[in-house]
Fold N-acetyltransferase domain-containing protein.
Amino acid sequence: MPIRPATEDDIEPMSEIAAQAFWDDELFGELIHPYRHEHPEGVRLYWRALIRKAWNDPASHFLVSTVGEGDSQTVAAWTEWIRKGRKDEVEDPKKKQAEWPALPPNRAAHPDRIHYLERSYDYISHQWSGPREQCWDIALLAVSPHHQGEGHGKRLMQWGIDQATREQLPISVISAYGKDKFYNKLGFTIASGSAQDGEGNPLAGLVKGGLIWWKEDHLT
Ligand SMILES: CC(C)(COP(=O)(O)OP(=O)(O)OC[C@H]1O[C@@H](n2cnc3c(N)ncnc32)[C@H](O)[C@@H]1OP(=O)(O)O)[C@@H](O)C(=O)NCCC(=O)NCCS
């Protein structure tokens, strides 16, 4: 199960995997996409837009974990790792903005709630400051339901853990509901708050998950 940097050709399978992996998730499923059963294509559009938005950001690192060989190789899981807080980041000219056509409207999404996640970051961004301003953050991790439990998640996590160990930086994650133990096992044992924190946070009281976890046991 090799992992490699994602390419533009991977964006579609990555969108499909995220749509499936988070189909019944309380946030990406129920809250943001209440009309997903009537308009399933909208959920894939959501993920495609989200991936595209970060695709050319030099701080974002998209990786895929694959199964099969040669022509039959398929993406089984993917992640977006973000190296936060670097000041000297310059745009890589090779990663120039792709000319993507506009996406059709996402009819699966609730028109207001689709922005809740993005808006919630304003209320919690202070968590990534001071000694934790420079860090690695696991922004997204999605394993195809057909390949969960095969080690893809752990392996994609290890890539970022290795980077953070080399740089001696903390690692953060906002954990989806029911996934805390997966991250705890990997050493994310310091909880510093929740994605619902802060007065006026649009996510407050609407989800059960969203704990902000830190891993620092690799720091010497
Ligand atoms: C959660 C998720 C990323 C785990 O990835 P995975 O590839 O299925 O997990 P792995 O096979 O790498 O498992 C690694 C270890 O974590 C454990 N584990 C996996 N999911 C777990 C869970 N939900 N709770 C507790 N432990 C879990 C495994 O048993 C395994 O333990 P081991 O090392 O002792 O054998 C994956 O199931 C997924 O994509 N879920 C839906 C989307 C999602 O919620 N993503 C996370 C958003 S924060």
Remarks:
- The helical segments are 11-21, 26-31, 40-55, 116-124, 152-167, 180-185.
- DSSP finds six helices and seven strands in the chain.
